[in-house]
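As a warm-up, study this chain.
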Amino acid sequence: MAMNFVTVLNSYDTATLPVGNNVAPGTPVKVGGYKGICLTGSGDYKVTETIGDMTITQPANTDTIRNANEGTVALGGTALVPVAGVVAGTLVGTAVYMDATGDLSLTATGNELFGFVYNASGLNTAASCCVRFDWRL
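Now compare it with the structure written out below.
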């Protein structure tokens, strides 16, 4: 489950969508006209954790109904995500754009509007910030 999520606008603002393969929870995604944050990761995404000399690998998404390339996507809300070009003083309300590879930045040229910088209790840093997003943008 995505650990970078601050809020979901409404519980009905989620959908199971074909997000691609090996997509981690918390990843910004675009599927057709929908843009959002993948909550569960794709069905084939695996989590590997090493504790001492033991390594455990297991599926992150244990919902057997989904196909390997599907995940639950939040279509609206606020998430703490990496945004290229953001600095600690980036103003709330600054537009955030998504490029063709799914990366987020403050660069408008050639990219699609994803959301806006949002201040959630001082979580914003020089490398990432809270972004309020809505698929209807």
